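Supplementary notes for students who missed Thursday's class. We covered one full example, reproduced here. Read the sequence, then the structure, then the short commentary at the end.
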Amino acid sequence: MESPILVVFTRGGQLNYNIWCSVRDLLGGSPSNVKGMPATEVDMSEIKSGSYRGIIVGGGPLSFSVDKDSEEFARLVSIIRSAEGVCPLLGICLGHQAIALAYGGDVSHSIRGEYGESQVTLSSSILFQGIPKTLSVWVSHFDEVDVAPPGFRVTASSPYCKVEAMECEEKLVYSVQFHPEVEETQYGRRIFYNFLFHVCGLRNVEEPEKKYSQAYNLLRQVITSSHERKIAHLKPFTLGRVDEIKPPKNVPTVVEYRLLFPPSPVLAPRDFVRNAIKFIQTIVKDKSVLLALSGGIDSSVTAELLRRAVKNRLWAIHIDHGFMRKGESKEVVGEFEDRIPNLIYVNASKLFYNAVVGKTDAEEKRLAFSNVYFKVLNKFSQEIGCEYISQGTIWPDIIESMKRERVSEGSSSYIKSQHNVSPPKEFMSSPHLKGLVEPVAGLFKNEERPLAAYLSLPPSLVFRMPFPGPGLLVRIVGEVTIENIELERKVNEIVEEEVLGYTTKTYGIPIYINEFGYHVPWQAFGFIMRDSSLSLPDNLYETISGILKTILVKYNLTLEDMYLLEGRMTGVKGDNRTYTFPLVIKLRDSILPSYDCLCEIFRAVTSVPHFNISRVLLELERKNEKNGRRYVAGIRAVISSNAMTAKNMPLPSTVVDSIASKLLRFSEVSCVVYDFGHKPSETIEPE
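Structure (token representation):
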């Protein structure tokens, strides 16, 4: 076996695990030839002794323009310099900037930043062999390399960043500012292939396209097969009260068990299933497990793995938290009541509503929801006698909830708190519990779907559209009330039905998945927020309107108005969370611009200097009245492979107009907007 490739994880880097998965799949799907390790745990002596055939340093939230004197930066520089003359090195995003500084280049805080799609022009390089000279790539950064180090040659540039890639062939050091590890970057896998095969000299490198194609072609056959959804007629157990958890001591005793760095469930599903079952059985032994079963692909795959591992010692609980889609709980229970005999259906909607009512901050709502969720799990696990609880937690849940320490500022941030990650201390100290078991923690959703088909789950579960754990709660921007929950449920249903109707008509199936696992759509939903606006300061209005007019004139469009909606929405820029008011633009005659025009607007507005906007909305139609007692209804549809990054889904104007017309029929809705942004700098969900 050849020495492995080392992928260095920088603290809080959103896409480092994607890099590891990309390399694993190019090396046949086995994790044995690629090692993932935090920078703080890398042994320099192993690097210097030639233990690795190549090293890849990924991105992260560290800002070298302000943190370059920190211990963390010094650690990255040591790793980079230790590899010199020993093995090839590839830096990505933050790794690209670290290489520049390590070898005497200049890195600075750029004026505008660069988020989402960008067009780069390539020069001759072994890294770009077999790739066109112009490339569409995905970026998310504010810092950039101003001047390449002595002896380095710039091999890619863009209108926003003059050093998008550089290399020093003599030192075998290569780096890119953009992200080849995401599906949105064209020829991203080819860049990794070139590094592994041509630079590192590995001969066991496979081009995964054929294997991926086989797996996802089989998946498309599954979705076209017939399957009647089962609807349960169970009377739910209504949960009236959950006592506070009062452990005898506040010392965490519950262990989190996560299966990370597994074999590829797409290329080696049998190996993955064997590993997962062994993982579960080794931990649980002869004890019982309570699974939190939402009915999404994550918990559905987890349910089948647990069923095979512990058999009749599996219990499952489906919690109706009151923010579900119409009829969803009955569908979920209907699908699983025969598969899992020990299934509990709990109506806890009042508990969840009482926990979030009156709260307007997105994080406060998420944390309040999470606290109730873990209290319910704690109560039932104790009553049943389960010493282990299992969840369908996957990697995006973990990394988005991970705190990112800012060394220079002495602060920390995260993208959003997922309800199933980082349980409260009281829960982790529950005396009757031994552990949280998460066998799919190292997976992405696009990997789970082929795995679900391999496990013979029905199409209605294999192709269930992703739905957030807190449900419609995170699609109600601002305060939650009984009335706006029902409004959001109706708004969401219309958007979802219309978009899936369009894809069914276009592709013959509601969700089209291409040969690389790219979902069209990934998600389609509606959101609501109070119709209350804020004016932009005059100088900012002039700056942005000038930028927009320059773009719009090329498409024969005219800007009519701009304003901010008074409801903060979550975003992500350069691995850090943003929480800002969305910018709404209105065009004359309410015309829906072309997809290219919308992309250009989004890129320009989210990069405006000193204007921290992450989300841009297009006003489609408005009733005459405009006051804070009514709601704005939003349309959102994205395409993605794993939700770490996403593109706005192109929709024809006929579909968008039809949705807007139906939404305006609700008396509570006074305005309809179209959310046309990408991730980054938007997150997929509004909160």
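Commentary. Residues 214-286+296-313+325-342+371-474 form a domain with the Rossmann fold fold (CATH 3.40.50.620). The CA atoms of residues 456 and 462 lie 9 Å apart. If anything here is unclear, bring it to office hours.
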